[in-house]
Amino acid sequence: MPPDPILPLISIPICLEMSGDNVAHEAETRVVEVEEEAGKAVAEEEDTGAQVAPIVKLQEVSITTGEEEEDVVLDMKAKLYRFDKDGNQWKERGVGTVKLLKHKETGKVRLVMRQAKTLKICANHLVLPSISVQEHSGNDKSCVWHAPDFSDGELKEELFCIRFAKVENAKKFMEMVEEIAKSQDRNSEEEDEAADTAAETLRDLKIEDGNKIQEFKEELKEDTNEEKKERVEKLETKGEEKEEEKSEVKAEITLEEPPAATEAIQEA
User: Fold this and answer.
1) For residue 127, which phi and psi values (nearest 5 degrees)?
2) Which one-letter DSSP state was computed for residue 118?
3) Which pLDDT does position 265 carry in this prediction?
4) If you write DSSP's letter for every residue of 129-149 in order, what string do you get?
5) Is 198 exposed, middle or buried, given 0-12, 13-18 or 19+ CB atoms closer than 10 A?
6) Where in the chain is the domain with CATH 2.30.29.30?
7) DSSP assignment, residue 58?
8) Phi and psi (nearest 5°) for 48?
9) Are 164 and 170 in contact (CB under 8 A)?
10) pLDDT at 14
């Protein structure tokens, strides 16, 4: 007997309907599983209050830059070049921040520039009275100067060129360096004058003290032993620092008096 042609047509929708139910059931099951896993993860991430000690203890390290005793006078971003005499060309030293730092005690000012990322020093020298900063020919944003530099660990004469982003920054830098150089020149002159005055004063004091000692020696020759004793007592009472004079007076008493007289003075 041939198969009924209507059966396949009827069975196909039933199979499709059954397969759709299975997919929905699996999807619901998967959703439940995902929610359960999420709940477990949240439970694991909850703070239990337990403290775990670190395996390695790191200690705080204080970093010194050498600028702790200095005040910042100028701080600007720039690009620095150094002239290479062997290659007869300009070579870039780095892009970073150029600073003028004034020491709190000595008042001396130095120029320091560090690279932006590595903080490597690319310029480090004092602003001396002999420094002259000039505008670079053909570029009003740049300026050049000579200086004995110590950035490479040894003192050597360098020719620098620095370039700023604005013309105003370049002019401000040149004016500031020029002003500091003049002030350092005035300070050096005042220090020289003070040193000369102190030297003259010391020389006069030495001459005056020498004359006083000589006069005192002459007076000792004319004094009696009793007067010599009084001189020593006066010096001790006044508290003056005349150890040399007192020792000379005591020596005179010891040499000129007989032993009995010396003992009597000591007992008195």
Assistant:
1) -90, 95
2) T
3) 38
4) TT---EEPTT-TTEEEEEEEE
5) exposed
6) 70-185
7) P
8) -90, -10
9) yes
10) 44
Alpha carbon distance 73, 178 (integer Å): 13
Phi and psi torsions of 178, nearest 5°: -65, -40
> What is the pLDDT, as a whole number, of residue 176?
94
Confidence of residue 111 (pLDDT cuts 50, 70, 90): very high
Task: Report the predicted TM-score, pTM, of the whole model to 2 decimal places.
Answer: 0.51
Q: Reply yes or no on whether the pLDDT at 102 is more than 90.
A: yes
70-185 CATH, one of 2.30.30.100, 3.40.50.1820, 1.20.1250.20, 2.30.29.30: 2.30.29.30
**Per-residue H/E/C for 175-238:** HHHHHHHHHHHHHHHHHHHHHHHHHHHHHHHHHHHHHHHHHHHHHHHHCCHHHHHHHHHHHHHH
Phi, psi of 119 (to 5 degrees): 60, 20
Asked if 102 and 73 touch (Cβ cutoff 8 Å), the reply is yes
Query: What b-and-e string marks burial along 164-184, b requiring 16 or more CB atoms within 10 Å of the CB?
Result: beeeebbeebbebbeebbeeb
Backbone angle region of 79, left / alpha / beta, with phi > 0 → left and psi within -120 to 50 → alpha: beta
Query: What type of residue sits at position 136?
Result: H
Q: Among 140, 187, 180, which residue's Cα sits nearest to residue 164?
A: 140
What are the residues facing 89 on neighbouring strands?
84
Q: Which two tokens stand for residue 133?
A: 């900063």
